[in-house]
Design a protein that fits this description.
Radius of gyration: 15 Å
Shape: globular
Number of strands: 11
Largest sheet: 7 strands, mixed, barrel
EC number: 3.6.1.15, 3.6.1.6
Organism: Anoxybacillus andreesenii
Keywords: Hydrolase, Magnesium, Metal-binding
Distance between the termini: 30 Å
Strand order of the largest sheet: 1-2-3-6-7-8-10
Pfam families: DUF402 (PF04167)
Catalytic activity: a ribonucleoside 5'-triphosphate + H2O = a ribonucleoside 5'-diphosphate + phosphate + H(+); a ribonucleoside 5'-diphosphate + H2O = a ribonucleoside 5'-phosphate + phosphate + H(+)
Order of helices and strands: EEEEEEEEEEEHHH
Structural class: alpha+beta
Length: 176
């Protein structure tokens, strides 16, 4: 697997289990790139949906992807604090073209006070049946929901105090 270079822009491609593209983020700046971890930053980047619709992100975000963990985390920096959007997903790969992962529908939204909601359970169940997720994938994802909740409660990884601020400062050095 290629390793994205720090300071370089990359695309992020989200797929569904059936191999169809789900969403593309046009440009994210790599802040840290290793075989196992990619941390990126973006602000007002163009996002293209599977149906061709486009929209632009509203706030700066720090993105956390790991090659061994079945979720990714986006910390969105807003006026009233940091909101996190966590996607239950396959571990990422980077093939030189883009950082890629499979989105498995379940999401956790975390608020600045660190309360959180599990989202899209109905969509997950529908897609699990339609796309015939293997039982092992179902088990992995449910275990990773629990792992992600532990990370939130323990303030681990991107949920640690100052994590987003530190990486956002790094992101700003590339924007100047």
């Amino acid at each position: 697997m290629d390793v994205p270079l720090e300071g370089e822009p990359i695309q992020i491609h989200s797929y569904k289990h059936n191999g169809h593209i789900h969403r593309i983020w046009e440009e994210t700046t790599v802040l840290k790139g290793t075989q196992n971890l990619v941390i990126g930053g973006n602000d007002r980047t163009i996002v293209t949906e599977s149906d061709g619709r486009t929209w632009v992100t509203r706030e700066p975000a720090i993105c956390y992807f790991h090659s061994q963990i079945w979720f990714n985390i986006i910390g969105m920096i807003r006026e009233d604090g940091i909101y996190y959007y966590c996607n239950l997903s396959s571990p990422f790969i980077f093939d030189g073209e883009a950082l890629k992962y499979i989105d498995y529908d379940l999401d956790i939204k975390v608020y600045p006070d660190m309360t959180f909601n599990l989202l899209d359970e109905d969509e997950y169940e529908r897609h699990r049946k339609e796309m015939k997720y293997p039982e092992v994938i179902d088990q992995i994802l449910k275990a990773n929901v629990d792992k992600l909740i532990r990370w939130i409660r323990q303030r681990k990884g991107p949920f640690a105090p100052d994590f987003i601020d530190i990486w956002y400062e790094r992101y700003l050095t590339y924007r100047r």
